[in-house]
Amino acid sequence: MKVNDVKKIAIIGSGAMGHGIAQVCAQAGYPVMMRDIKKEFLDNAMAKVKESMAFLVGKGKMAQENMDKAMNNLKTTLGMKEATSDAQIVIEAVPEIMELKKSVFREISDLAQTDAILATNTSTMSISEIGSVVKNPQRFVGMHFFNPVNRMKLVEIIYGDKTNDEHADLLSEIAKKCDKIPVKVLKDRPGFIVNRINAPNQAFLSAILDEGRVKPQELDATMKKMGAKMAPFETADFVGLDVFCHTLEYYSRTLSPQYKPGKFLKEKLAKNELGMKSGKGIYEWKDGKAMIDVSKTSDDLTPIHLLAVQVNEAVKVWKEGLATSIQDIDDAVKFGMNAFAGPFTLAAGIQPQQLTDTLNTLYSRYKLEFLKPEPEIADGSFKTIGR
Ligand SMILES: NC(=O)c1ccc[n+]([C@@H]2O[C@H](COP(=O)([O-])OP(=O)(O)OC[C@H]3O[C@@H](n4cnc5c(N)ncnc54)[C@H](O)[C@@H]3O)[C@@H](O)[C@H]2O)c1
């Protein structure tokens, strides 16, 4: 199949992600059919898409005529057959439950054309395992959009163990047409690229909270002084400490037991202090803002520590063969985390010795294996690998 053969895209699930994916596909000119299990969910999704486009029109970022065209491209249905039987691409965005995803894909596999490309937007599950239930699993691909879909540029295109290049390439083309930046993830590993590179820093933050030597607001204040729009502990509160812990639990099962959330976070959960959504987490929250005292910064832990941990993990990701190029790793982090630049670009001007010393100090202080510097950090070759 060629990109011009794509005449219809089906989106299964119209929640936080599904409606956003439907929107960007419709804006790209594709006829889109969204499927959900209740009419009210579909109505709600359509209202959100309309609101989002109207906002763009109001800001002068979209012509009214283009909004009208995009809205005309969007249809909804409760029928799986109506959604999928004549679609060339089916993108699933139902809740993150393995058995649900498998049963949805069994149904899709029976109803859709045998050469339709089937994609899952899972953020944590094995692409190969979900894809194992469909006929012709070589057409099964991970297509990981980031939240909010209408604003986040990155889409990870993930290979399952049977995915072939032709289908991954075609989905990359579709992502580009949707004004996104696709990055291929060549192996189906936990966290794919972006979340995997972020994982050690999440566990590191948990360790800082347990140690109690540096106060969260001191590290966050330092980050904000250096231009961060949202600092790390503030982000944890914003996302929700329950979600933060859930992610760490997942990595403790899939990467290493050392990722387990620490005592501080567990106590917060027990007290239902979950961050922004409960009004209190690491910070008190008022009117959607964390009450952070930015006057006291920290010299003990600084952004260089977080960057060292991130580059170290990025080197592992490269060595494990997850990415096509170093540039792709940098793009994935930059556009998937709204960062100023990717880890290799940011670390280019830093002496290898400084990064090595930073990681060794962190390792001896926190005793976490994943903080140990990779040989390519110590010998400086991280600056040239893959290039
Ligand atoms: N929310 C995020 O930040 C985010 C980011 C990236 C990826 N993801 C992934 O995207 C997927 C969807 O997440 P979400 O946050 O949009 O979930 P959500 O709960 O907001 O939406 C899921 C939707 O799927 C619908 N659904 C359930 N069973 C269905 C079925 N059989 N057929 C059609 N629709 C069905 C639900 O009614 C709901 O409307 C998950 O795999 C999640 O891990 C989420």
Task: Describe what you observe in this structure.
48% of the residues lie in helices and 11% in strands. It is α/β, with parallel strands linked by helices. It has 2 domains: 3-185, 3-Layer(aba) Sandwich (Rossmann fold), CATH 3.40.50.720; 193-387, N-(1-d-carboxylethyl)-l-norvaline Dehydrogenase, domain 2 (Orthogonal Bundle). The strands form 2 sheets. It has an 8-stranded mixed β-sheet with strand order 3-2-1-4-5-6-7-8, with helices on both faces. α7 links the parallel β7 and β8 (181-185). The two termini are 33 Å apart. Residues 12-18, 35-37, 41, 93-96, 104, 121-123, 146-147 line the site of nicotinamide-adenine-dinucleotide. Nicotinamide-adenine-dinucleotide (NAD) binds at residues 12-18, 35-37, 41, 93-96, 104, 121-123, 146-147.
Topology:
Elements: E1 9-12, H1 18-27, E2 32-35, H2 39-58, H3 64-73, E3 74-77, H4 80-84, E4 89-92, H5 98-111, E5 117-120, H6 127-131, E6 140-145, E7 154-159, H7 165-177, E8 181-185, H8 194-211, H9 216-225, H10 232-239, H11 241-254, H12 263-270, E9 285-286, E10 289-290, H13 303-319, H14 326-336, H15 343-347, H16 352-366, H17 375-378
Parallel strand pairs: 1-2, 1-4, 2-3, 4-5, 5-6, 7-8
Antiparallel strand pairs: 6-7, 9-10
Helix pairs in contact: 1-2, 8-13, 10-11, 13-16
The chain binds nicotinamide-adenine-dinucleotide (NAD).
Nicotinamide-adenine-dinucleotide binds at residues 12-18, 35-37, 41, 93-96, 104, 121-123, 146-147.
